[in-house]
Every structure is written in C-alpha cells, then in structure tokens.
Amino acid sequence: MSSSSDSADTIVPDSEHRGLIASLPQLPRDLAQLARFDRPIGWWLLFWPCVFGVWLSGSGWQFGLLAWLLLGSIAMRGAGCVYNDITDAELDRKVARTASRPIASGRVSKRTAWIWLAALSLVGLVVLLQLPVRAQIIALASLALVAAYPFMKRITWWPQAWLGLTFNWGVLVGFAALANDRWPVAIAVYLGCVLWTVGYDTIYAVQDTEDDALVGIRSSALRMGGKVRQGVALCYAGAVALWAIGFWLLREDWVAWLTLLPVAAHLAWQVLTLDQGDPANPLERFRSNRWAGFLLALACFVVGNAGV
User: Fold this and answer.
1) Cα separation of 142 and 135, whole Å?
2) What residue intervals traverse the membrane (predicted)?
3) Would you kindly state where each structural domain of the chain is located, as residue ranges?
4) Taking the CB of residue 287, how many other CB atoms lie within 10 A of it?
5) Within 10 Å of residue 135's Cβ, how many Cβ atoms?
6) CB of 175 within 8 A of CB of 50?
7) What confidence tens digit (pLDDT) does each residue in 212-243 have?
8) CATH of the domain spanning 26-305, picked from 1.10.1040.10, 2.60.40.10, 1.10.10.10, 1.10.357.140
9) DSSP labels, 273-308
10) Which residues contact 133 (CB under 8 A, 6 or more apart)?
C-alpha cells in the first residue's frame, strides 16, 4: 500500500480536495483526477452559463432541469478533461504543474482513459435525452468546439477565446430548453460570457507562463506579457457591457442594469487584487469566479423573471 507521502506525490498541485482524493485507492484516485472531480471550479464554470440561459427564459426556478444540467456539467466537464489529457500528454510532461497528471506520468494508460471518457460521455447522453429536441441539437453542435479545443494552444495565442466559445455553450442550451424567441438576448449574454472566460482563464494561465514559453504552448497570458491586468480588465469590461446589452434587449429598463453591479464589482476586485508575483494569488482569483457566476445567475433570474 502506498504511504501518505507517496499518495501526495500522485496528486496534482492545484487539487482542492487532497484529503478525500488521497484516501482513495490509486486507480480511482487517478480517474477522479482525470475527470477533475477534485477541482469543482471547472464544472461550476460550465454549469453557471446553463443557469444563465434557463433563468433568462423567464420560466422560473426550474430546479429539476437545473439538476439535470448540473449532472451533465460534471460529467461532460470530466469527459472534456480526460480528452484534453489524452491529447496533451506529451505537452503535460514538460510543464511542472501538469507533469504529475495521471496520463502524463504514465499511471493511467490511454486505453483506460478512453474507456473512462466513454463512461462519462454515457452519463452526458442520459442528460441530453432529458432535454427538448431543440436544446439537444444545440448541445450536440458544441462537440466540434470541444474536439478542437486541445489543439488551439498549438495554433493560436488565444486558446482562451476558443475555451470561452466552448465553455459557455450552456447559455444557448439552457435558453433553448425553455424559449423559442428573443435569441439576441441569449447571444449577447453568451458573447459576454466568452469575454469573461478569456479574462478568468488568462488569470489561470499566469501560473504556467514560464513553462509554456519554454515548451512552445501559446496562451493569452503570454500574449499580454506585462499587461495581463489591463488585458483582463478590458475583457471583463467587455463582458459586463455585453451582459448589459442582453438585459436591455430583454427588458428596456435601465434599472435592470443595477443587477449587474455586484458581479461587476467582483470582477473589478479580481483585477485590482491580481498579483502575478504571488504563486497562490492567480489561482485564488481564478477560483473566485464561481462567485462571479453565482452573482450573474441572480441577475439573470431577477431580470428574466421580473413581472412574470
């Protein structure tokens, strides 16, 4: 049996649940890490856009639908991460933060990873079948974005933009599940979320700038160079502006914009307190976006359901 120190050596550095993950046998621990079950921030950031779309539709809380979408977010975020690690194994071995990932380190074979990917995708299929046909078609359209994402860091300095297109597709899926008109509203909010993702994933990419530069991985953090804070601020400002446009298209009432003040304040706090010299600071600011998503979800509910 592995010692506790050996267990710690097989857990990626940014795991959020070291005690729980370390208590698992080796293979379940590796599979959990492959699907990022130990790092829930990812599925929160995939789930919140689904909530935005559902609540913007003006159909009330819809807790049952949201429960299915949460399960789908966890499963499909996991499947996406497994696919990403399969395609990125060689690159991951060259980056300090990712070298201990299960496939990169050789603890899990690619065959086992593909089987795990299929199992997670099956859960996603079950969730997909709970949605109306229109929402199913829109959800399936995202698969091309998902398949291409791991290769973006090889061909563009802005893989974060592609991630934004992919990760926020839930806005359109959630909206389609309950609405069949006023699509400019959902599209404006979706595009705002794309900029939000470019901002927060640039903050995340700050952790790897030195290694990425050495191995030839491209990122918005490297592209922005010494102006990461200004670049993230511009992305966040653009996001809030697009969300405001979406809210106006839904409800021509400037008072509705007041609901965006909490999330705008939170994003401003991230920018003002970002410290690239502190290794822990960018990761903490990135993870705080689960609260940004929560605040925007509340705004979408208020604006989408006011007067209903």
Assistant:
1) 11
2) 46-71, 113-129, 161-179, 185-207, 228-248, 254-271, 291-307
3) 26-305
4) 19
5) 22
6) no
7) 544 556 667 676 777 888 999 999 999 999 99
8) 1.10.357.140
9) H--TTSTHHHHHHHHTHHHHHHHHHHHHHHHHHTT-
10) none
